[in-house]
Amino acid sequence: MGWGFRNVTLMLFVCAALPAADTPTFEKTVVPILTSTCTPCHNQNLASGGMNIAQFTQSASLTKSRDGWDIILRKMRSGEMPPKGIPRPAQMNAVIQYLRDEFDRADRNLKPDPGRVTARRLNRGEYSNTIRDLLAVEFHAEQSFPTDDLGNGFDNIGDVLTISPVLMEHYLAAAGRIASRAVGADPLPKPLEAQYANKDKKIRRVDFSSIEAKGRIEFDGEYIVRFGLQGERTADAKPVTLAFWMDGKLLNSMPVETKPSKLVYFDPYSEEQMRLFLPEGDHVFRAAFVDDEFVKGLSARDAYDRKKNKFVDSITFIGPYVPKTPQPSRAKIFICDPNSGAACVEKIVANLAHHAWRRPVAKAETASLLKFVAMAKASGQTTEQGIQLALQAMLVSPHFLFRIERDANPLDASTAHAVTDLELASRLSYFLWSSMPDDELLALAEAGKLRAGDTLDAQVKRMLADPRSAALADNFAGQWLELRNLDVVKPDPQKFPDWSPELRDAMRQETRLFFDAILRENRPLSEFLDARYTFLNERLAKHYGIEGVKGQDFRKVDLATTQRGGILSHASVLTVSSYPTRTSVVIRGKYILNNILGSPPPPPPPDVPALDEAAVGASASLRQQMEKHRADAMCASCHNKMDPLGFGLENYDGIGKWRTMDGKFSVDSSGTLPNGSSFATPGEMRTVLKTQLPQFSRCIVEKMLTYSLGRGLGSYDRRTVDEIDRNLAASGYGFQRLIFEIVRSLPFQSRRGEQQP
């Protein structure tokens, strides 16, 4: 009986060790689907899309051909494979689950690898923002420095942020001007007068109430800004408010009387003036009568009739003058009176270097900077000018220009370690603010408390609520959504007479405010695809055909129809994805694949024939023209993915205006995606795209992780991307959750050495 019991126990143990009959295996679960569904199109003789599935029929391929399997799995999950016309096997979900489980298991068994980021130079945006936060000086690096190179779609990638001799010369010149402006110790020149007037064609009339001028302010200082106002209005005309803007920011406003003068020989001309501090640099100035109801009933001819209207005709600048009150930069620099002695000077220099270099400064480093103060004083300059020279030296130091992270063993690629709290603080601030850490963040890092408890999460929450987090809209969204291209696109004025600088700026502002709202309010990612609201001013609302929006200020507007919804209906996106003369199904389709679905198509073959531009909208519709591309088998595989998405946006013209006709032909926005999903309107296409939210989520996870790390992603980042994507989905796809997950991730908080050649 004892032996029988032992035999039964042994048999139970052996059975438990063997796989159950219904346990999924590669041979039972995956191979049958590959051979029956995939092989007919993806074989040695007919390798559709350049894919021969034979190499993936062995279980060893899960490890050896992981990149290829990732592509296959993505196409299976999105429904792209099998394509329309081929029945989707009932076992497909089991195949997908098996592959996901296998890859998750493999990734968990891999040694964690946080990757490596090279020493990163501050890009132009980061340089400008850092100067702003360090010294309270507005410096526009984009006007002074060469354009930064792009890598992986962003301009903050360490590997491409090199320094050329030309850029170094610009750094030296900029450091001198910035230090001089910040300290304000150099004497100002004699005040001069510069006028921008209609008679000299130096202004641009924006509308009947507004003029605009581009000009340069050579020195920080106070200026008398004088406005020439031509004409007069009727005796019952109400006073108006004259407002003055610089670079889109309202600086001042004042009431202005418009009634006729009682003097018999009065010339209908008057002047008003303001005294304002204006910073050095190239600026766009605008003067306007705000909410001017009077001009709404005037024709273009009457609007500039001096007997029928009063209008702004010129802007004159007189200055510079020494500011009556010290500028904020001096408060940041002179934390004590530099004339009180050497101890105060040392304190000022050490404090500046501490913040400029974003770390504690050694006594020896402070001593070397104090030599510049002594050098200036030896040449007859003041103590303040000596501090100015020391500041100039700080701004050309690698400690300022670069974000340097140090490895204990930089050539050991097998060892990963956490970055220091100070390095983490800079990673965090340049991710969320595109700028230096502030005092609170820096103090926590120096005390070694940044990672303690919930401190890091609390800092992320605080920083996202800070206005400086608008840098994510400007820099991340500006590049992810390609909004920066609005500065270079030039729609044909004959085809699109509505195009203007005001419309362009309004387009950019809509998308910027939209992104910022989703971020700050922690809205779900799905609202990027089909939000039922947007942000408009009167100019853009008129372009969209939306009534009830008045004035230049932007406000949140609920959308009453399905014509608009989400970023794909924003005029900014639609304009940058069009040609100057017409829409482009291919560019718009590629835009969605690349920026929304994370599935960029391969480059086109070199011999693709161009469309007959003269025929589009005249003798043939764009859809008829594009059918020629899909008729070619080599082109069809990509165009079958791109074209339906592009056609789904054909109700929007080349600058995003709604239309139902394209020349002589009715617009047909219908399409069918490779997974069989169909739609007939842009609104229906957005509904289809929302069903692919997991694919969009992974796309934005990969793009934001790339942006936050300042490097391209490698195969070793799959595990991190999967974890972030999984946690994001579990949270309901709240946008802020993505930020928190990235900051908590291994690659954001760690680094490793470099692989030796």
Write the layout of secondary structure elements.
Blueprint: H1 2-17, H2 26-38, H3 61-64, H4 66-78, H5 92-109, E1 120-121, H6 124-135, H7 141-144, H8 165-183, E2 192-197, E3 204-207, E4 210-217, E5 221-231, E6 240-246, E7 249-256, E8 269-278, E9 281-290, H9 300-303, E10 310-321, H10 328-333, H11 342-356, H12 363-378, H13 383-395, H14 398-401, E11 402-403, E12 416-418, H15 421-432, H16 439-446, H17 455-465, H18 471-480, H19 501-520, H20 526-530, E13 533-536, H21 538-544, E14 555-558, H22 571-576, H23 585-595, H24 622-631, H25 633-647, E15 661-662, E16 665-666, E17 671-672, E18 678-679, H26 682-690, H27 693-709, H28 718-730, H29 735-744, H30 746-749, E19 750-752
Antiparallel strand pairs: 1-11, 2-10, 3-4, 4-9, 5-8, 5-10, 6-7, 6-9, 12-19, 13-14, 15-16, 17-18
Overview of the molecule:
Among the domains are: 2-109, no CATH class; 192-321, Jelly Rolls; 473-691, no CATH class. The chain is an alpha+beta fold and 757 residues long. 35% of the residues are buried. It contains 30 helices and 19 strands. Residues 1-18 have low confidence and may be disordered.
What gross morphology would you assign?
A: flat
Strand order of the largest sheet: 3-4-9-6-7
User: End-to-end distance, in Å?
Assistant: 67 Å
Point out poorly predicted stretches.
1-18
DSSP strand (E) fraction?
5-15%
Structural class: alpha+beta
Helix content: 40-55%
Number of helices: 30
Radius of gyration: 31 Å
Average pLDDT reading: 90
Number of DSSP strand runs:
19
Give the biggest sheet.
5 strands, antiparallel
